[in-house]
Amino acid sequence: xxxxxxxxxxxxxxxxxxxxxxxxxxxxxxxxxxxxxxxxxxxxxxxxxxxxxxxxxxxxxxxxxxxxxxxxxxxxxxxxxxxxxxxxxxxxxxxxxxxxxxxxxxxxxxxxxxxxxxxxxxxxxxxxxxxxxxxxxxxxxxxxxxxxxxxxxxxxxxxxxxxxxxxxxxxxxxxxxxxxxxxxxxxxxxxxxxxxxxxxxxxxxxxxxxxxxxxxxxxxxxxxxxxxxxxxxxxxxxxxxxxxxxxxxxxxxxxxxxxxxxxxxxxxxxxxxxxxxxxxxxxxxxxxxxxxxxxxxxxxxxxxxxxxxxxxxxxxxxxxxxxxxxxxxxxxxxxxxxxxxxxxxxxxxxxxxxxxxxxxxxxxxxxxxxxxxxxxxxxxxxxxxxxxxxxxxxxxxxxxxxxxxxxxxxxxxxxxxxxxxxxxxxxxxxxxxxxxxxxxxxxxxxxxxxxxxxxxxxxxxxxxxxxxxxxxxxxxxxxxxxxxxxxxxxxxxxxxxxxxxxxxxxxxxxxxxxxxxxxxxxxxxxxxxxxxxxxxxxxxxxxxxxxxxxxxxxxxxxxxxxxxxxxxxxxxxxxxxxxxxxxxxxxxxxxxxxxxxxxxxxxxxxxxxxxxxxxxxxxxxxxxxxxxxxxxxxxxxxxxxxxxxxxxxxxxxxxxxxxxxxxxxxxxxxxxxxxxxxxxxxxxxxxxxxxxxxxxxxxxxxxxxxxxxxxxxxxxxxxxxxxxxxxxxxxxxxxxxxxxxxxxxxxxxxxxxxxxxxxxxxxxxxxxxxxxxxxxxxxxxxxxxxxxxxxxxxxxxxxxxxxxxxxxxxxxxxxxxxxxxxxxxxxxxxxxxxxxxxxxxxxxxxxxxxxxxxxxxxxxxxxxxxxxxxxxxxxxxxxxxxxxxxxxxxxxxxxxxxxxxxxxxxxxxxxxxxxxxxxxxxxxxxxxxxxxxxxxxxx
Length: 939
Fold this sequence. Notes:
About 50% of the residues lie in helices and about 15% in strands. It holds the Pfam family DNA_pol_A. It catalyses: DNA(n) + a 2'-deoxyribonucleoside 5'-triphosphate = DNA(n+1) + diphosphate.
């Protein structure tokens, strides 16, 4: 054969980190007899052996990271700085895995100061230049910039090749433009900043339009979209820094040349000695059998399992970590469901998820249930599908075959209520609430969403799709993929069974994998207590609140809506008279022209669209300084318009006909501080500082024979600031029950409390609350309407009187900069991405957040602890009240009139003692009680 016709040599470069973490998270804990953890070593050995067997390679090497610090940290100090440390049980396995690589006669390559990706890039570039074909065994998106005619990636999780077509699908550009896209989009997982507001899709659009990053940045001023243009112009340097970070080096000075990667046969004695040292008995048997045949390459495929002994128990574990196969079982008869239930009981844990017709727990009808007992071991049990069955049943039928709902529930109820079987969900609160409507109390539970939230609250979102991508680089099937979108979207009961199986089976499968991956980290990172004592036990309590709902007086809201509409019409007439012209009061553009062109009021500033800014801050300043009544009148009109559209018009539409009540959904993993949020509808943002806003609460009423009971923590964050900053003067004042704001005014401004000017007290109050939010002199000046210099003097006087506050603030900022998070008194971590950002505005924002988050987060932990104890305390006391709403520091109950006083005393006691016994706080917590026929009178 002549040289021209000779087949190119093939070079395999294995991303060692990918193999390590895939192996570690795929296998359960496993130790040698001396206690050394070896689960990752075992998984790695199986994967490497399989690759050696299957790969038709002339060259092969495993490339490792030599350490966390590389030349990129000199370019950008925060590069990968927020990545958590490796789990303690994985750390001793790193050296063993390198030893395993050499034991199988494969080069283990690493170089200090460079990442594995740089070494891979260098070897791949050299190999391609010499005419070799290169396969990079990894799914790492950063390596996709290397893809070309001779270089491709192989994703071992999905068993697929990644070439130019796949790169184009992922990034929207060819491989040679991937770096440009990543420079713009950044990468939160590696702390690559990118350009704020630009994601991969937008970045690809820009690069395809302008050709490359340098051309784009040079012509950024031409971009029509104002926000996009502003971000690019302001953050051009960040984009260039990001390019330096994501560009892989292709000229690393290699210790081992490419020729040194030539594939060698396995030295049986060395490999077996290593396997014996680590007690991999099954693997020893298999390797001995294959070495005795025509050589290791003769062996192909076959099931791979390892019996790992722990005491007297023998556990069967999958030795080759499972990729997402997407092959799950459709359960359409009782026999198969019973088989899965039996399997679940044997496993002792199941991932559980339901499919319904609605996200509203009251109107939701159960359509199906999915279960998983291991990776790729999931099933879907349809019980309420009405649509066509799809391909699985060999043709369309009007109603597909499925187990009758009542019968399926009867079979599932004992399993879901079995205390010996753990039920794992992702946002399992929803599943608990819906199943409770069907008479099933699902317990005990775990929630992979909340585990993720406890581990990395504030660092990223905790939805299943995002976590699957983050941890497994797996793109999940989206609801719109199976149910359609927009006007053509159908409810899940109309989804064909083949699509429903793929979607629902994957949900359970991903939930199982997330739980296996994340739950062990709670112990390793000392966060088990936060999860076990605060987050998990709150789930059934919140589910009960959502099911209870709150009664709304629709007629009262209707009267308010008519009143608001009438008053808005009158105001519009007054506004037109003041303006001397008719215009659309709701149009910011027309309002700006009236204020600044027609009336010539001072301070008009045009934005990038060419229209004047007419936000609330602009109108408030004009109302104070211009002397013209129009700005204040427009502010009044806007307030009524918001109340009308958001509440008096919208809330009646949210009343469920089944209950006559409104059922909000409480989001448990939404905020960075642990606070609970309210959605659909949001009942936490009803304004209470204005008389008109307080009127809305009049429409929240009690059932006949009942009253609403509101119990609210008094100044809890300020009390916690005194505690956590150890301000003795403030602590004494709280213990003595003093007027804290008057006392602060007296001590800071040197005026007696007796006969104090209310304005002076107001200024002290603004400082007290502003300080704990990291308020600046500018912010305080805006709030109090005083010169900035005066506001700065107030803050300095405050710090001089209470130096511990400044110390606390600096301590929190320093802690956040070093750790990437701050902590509450109960150990919750509130992550602060951007705390070390080079952009001063982003950095300052996170510094303010770092000051307040421990206070707000501790307050959130305390009220959650109170909520967890409340149902049991009420039951033990024989009281029949029920908790309806949580609004930051306030709990709202509906209680029988005859029990109002006793319930109020009990709730007050539970709330005030909530930190105990976990934490004794020296400053007393005070909960204030109010009752009434409606929420306005109760609070």
